[in-house]
Write a structure and sequence with these properties.
With 573 residues, the protein is α+β, with helices and mostly antiparallel strands. It has 26 helices and ten strands. Its cofactor is Mg(2+); Mn(2+).
Length: 573
């Protein structure tokens, strides 16, 4: 736990510069060069021989060759047609390719499968190349490939394809041999394979703005080479599974349980969970139970209980159900286990389990003219100058939390921030997020009792306007809404909401009521706001909504569930 929330982390490296994408035609090369330098400096002790060799070769290239390589890296796949490598700022592609070929970074005679040819060439080009082998040249491209597959079932070099096709090929093809190395460098820089190099351009053009967080020597995604290899191994297994590969083969390639890395074990657990869900859908229930038991995914235990129930193994299901209620991974798991347990009791001939009666929730029923939006219809019906109503759903409480606790969320802790394009800390959804920042959050939430919370939120709203945040959706929070929220929402209720939110961010930042009505002129001591969940005809409360409403009711917070019926014979407004 960090006990110094006001301390500033030292910065061992300058902030990464971003090229001017509007005025510099080689902006992408500048950005990629920055990534290579950043990774080579911060991961020098973890780079393998292949990565070091690539960095050395890349840095020795002439500028046009560097630029062409980066252009290929930023495109899809690793095979490229020469006639498509045309860039004004690079000049003649053959000249730029010469140095890449000399350095072994490009293969001029790659082996290509028929499928790869079909990815590279158009239907018309393929018909011209294979016209001597096609009986139905007017077919769609997919049918043409199906017709040729039995004949051409092996990967061939480009020259061999020219020979067997018997017709001129539409363009020569080269292969970038270092695509996987560049992907690993991207992984080390971003800490994930979700973000692309286009993040630089989005930041440069002001489309995305990110909080500036100091980087220290241990501010990196991976602390060991083993973790990099494990990440890649898990990612590869997921891709193979999603591509339809044999589950047993994928499981054999998946690393064993990772006791020394919570976040990598969570990624591994998601792969196992996906496989288990697939087996369950296919009716392989016993296999699904085995895979769910190996996964630490947040929903794995509940799915395992449900499958055991389907298998008639009620005693095993009940034992797990009790575990889920006594030591739940989340409120959602406890809620679902409580719903399943009575069925298991009936199946085993046991008495119905006792259930704590929920706190009563205010209900209202409205009959309104038909509208395309039930929330908008209710808002317009209830809204008045004395009691304005806003559609906020999950945005308002999340935003107030994000603004009040900004420095806790963006605290420069080891492993949280390691590149300049993060909208939030890397461990936001991990169990250690709150414990590692408990002192920071204590410091921030203390403002609610100190009476400085309103001023602090206003200041953050002005200072941080437009900066990416996992909690603040700037388009949903204007100054009028913020002013009423700060005036009417009691700090005691804010503390309760915020404490609930931070204990399970993944589950609790959704499910909040749709509308909020403020009573700025209410007399002293009475409620100055009301949260309203809207349900149209046939609509029912979702589980996360039930949990939020029950929480509010349990703490005497004004919350209402509004059920709407449409007036008969009304046209759409």
């Amino acid at each position: 736990m960090n006990s110094t929330p006001d301390c500033a982390a030292s910065t061992d490296a300058p902030l990464l510069s971003v090229a001017d994408s509007l005025n510099d035609p080689l902006y992408y090369l500048v950005n990629f060069d920055n990534v290579v330098t950043w990774v080579s400096e911060r991961y020098a002790d973890l780079l393998d021989e292949e990565e070091r060799d690539f960095i050395m070769r890349f840095q020795s290239l002439p500028v046009p060759s560097k630029a062409l390589l980066v252009r290929m890296v930023m495109r899809k796949g690793e095979h490229f047609r020469l006639d498509r490598l045309v860039y004004d700022e690079i000049g003649e592609a053959q000249t730029a390719l010469a140095a890449l070929i000399e350095q072994g970074l490009v293969d001029t005679s790659p082996c290509l499968t028929l499928e790869q040819l079909f990815d590279l060439f158009t239907r018309e080009e393929l018909v011209g190349m294979f016209r001597d082998h096609l009986s139905r040249p007017r077919d769609r491209k997919a049918l043409l490939k199906d017709a040729l597959t039995p004949v051409f079932d092996q990967a061939l070099t480009f020259d061999d394809w020219h020979s067997v096709a018997g017709q001129p090929m539409a363009s020569e093809v080269v292969r970038l041999t270092t695509m996987m190395v560049c992907e690993r460098l991207r992984l080390m820089f971003f800490g994930n394979l979700r973000q692309q190099f286009s993040e630089f351009v989005l930041a440069d053009q002001g489309i995305y703005r990110f909080e500036v967080v100091p980087f220290t020597s241990d501010s990196r995604a991976f602390q060991s080479r083993t973790d990099i290899e494990r990440y890649w191994q898990i990612h590869d297994c997921l891709e193979r599974f999603e591509a339809g590969h044999d589950i047993d083969a994928v499981l054999a390639a998946l690393p064993p349980r990772l006791h020394d890395s919570v976040w990598l074990e969570a990624r591994r657990g998601r792969v196992l969970y996906a496989m288990a869900r697939h087996c369950e859908r296919q009716g392989a229930l016993k296999r699904a139970v085995e895979l769910y038991a190996q996964s630490h995914h947040g929903e794995a235990r509940i799915r395992r209980i449900r499958v055991l129930e389907r298998l008639g193994e009620h005693e095993s299901a009940l034992a797990l159900c009790r575990d889920a209620q006594n030591v739940p991974t989340s409120e959602a798991e406890r809620q679902q286990a409580a719903r399943i347990q009575p069925r298991l009791h009936r199946a085993l001939g046991m008495a119905k389990p006792s259930v704590e009666a929920p706190a009563p929730v205010q209900r209202c029923d409205l009959t309104l003219p038909r509208s395309t939006s039930v929330e908008r219809a209710v808002r317009e019906h209830l809204h008045s100058l004395d009691a304005p109503v806003f559609y906020v759903e999950n945005t308002l409480i999340n935003a107030l939390f994000g603004l009040l606790c900004w420095e806790a969320i963006f605290a420069p802790l080891p492993g949280a921030f390691f590149h300049p394009f993060q909208s939030g800390p890397a461990d936001l959804m991990r169990p250690e997020f709150y414990p590692q920042r408990e002192s920071y959050f204590t410091h921030c939430l203390a403002r609610l009792e100190a009476g400085t919370w309103q001023e602090n939120i206003r200041q953050r709203y002005q200072e941080k306007q437009g900066i990416q945040s996992p909690f603040v959706h700037w388009g949903a929070l204007d100054e009028a809404l913020l002013a009423l929220a700060l005036e009417c929402l009691p700090p005691a209720h804010l503390r309760l909401w915020f404490e609930r939110l931070v204990t399970d961010i993944r589950a609790n930042r959704a499910g909040m009521p749709d509308l909020i009505r403020f009573y700025p002129n209410a007399p002293e001591g009475s409620a100055r706001y009301e949260m309203i969940e809207v349900k149209g005809p046939g609509d029912r409360l979702q589980d996360n909504q039930k949990r939020w409403i029950a929480f509010c009711a349990r703490h005497d917070m004004p919350v209402t569930v509004c059920h709407v019926r449409w007036c008969p014979d009304e046209d759409l407004s």
